[in-house]
Design goal:
Helix content: over 70%
CATH topology of the largest domain: Rna Polymerase Sigma Factor, Chain: A
CATH class of the largest domain: Mainly Alpha
Number of helices: 8
Strand content: under 5%
Number of domains: 2
Shape: globular
Length: about 190
């Protein structure tokens, strides 16, 4: 934590190397969090870059008030995702389906790869059926890999409430995936 405080302090002073280190440390966590919500690789990359641009532009406004730097960064991410989803809901375009990316040296079973892609799609559909609070907790805990205390700070709940939301979300996902209770969320 002290190392993070030092990096943030240096970044606030305009030290680009310090901000680069913060970027390297948080990029994957922020990207995974955004990817779960945006469900589009290209959009997730763009949103993540925008998050870090906003962070570098406004890092001077960050103050240590009992919350970690990551909470501030994830708040920016949350706001960017909300903006993205609002804009996306107003668009009338139909997104193209992403094809699974096959590595050049892939020699495995293509049927297994297709099954895995289908399982991932089922998980995405199931996550969409959770409450917004459950989606936030699942995204932050498992995709951004944040500890319960940090998630609690980000979502404005105590740790017990976060644990309860996580538990109920996992049970709901298990039920939906095991018993095929995933509803199609088709618009139009």
């Amino acid at each position: 934590m002290q190392d993070q405080q030092n990096l943030v302090h240096r970044a606030k002073q305009g030290d680009q190397e310090a901000f680069s280190q913060l970027y390297e440390y948080y990029f994957d966590k922020i990207y995974r969090y955004v990817m779960v919500r945006a469900q589009d690789r290209i959009e997730a990359e763009d949103i993540t870059q925008e998050i870090f641009l906003k962070a570098v532009r406004s890092i001077h406004s960050f103050n240590w008030k009992g919350i970690p730097f990551s909470a501030w960064l994830f708040r920016i991410a949350h706001n960017e995702i909300i903006d993205y989803l609002r804009k996306k809901s107003k668009q009338t375009t139909v997104p193209l389906q992403e094809l699974p990316v096959v590595p050049e040296n892939y020699t495995g079973n293509p049927h297994l790869m297709v099954e895995r892609e289908l399982e991932i799609e089922q998980l995405k559909a199931a996550i969409k059926q959770l409450t917004q609070a459950q989606q936030d907790v699942i995204s932050l805990r498992f995709f951004a890999e944040l500890p319960i205390a940090e998630v609690a700070s980000l979502v404005g709940k105590n740790q017990g409430a976060v644990k309860a939301l996580q538990h109920s979300a996992i049970l709901a996902l298990h039920r939906m995936l095991l018993y095929g209770e995933i509803m199609k969320n088709e618009k139009g």
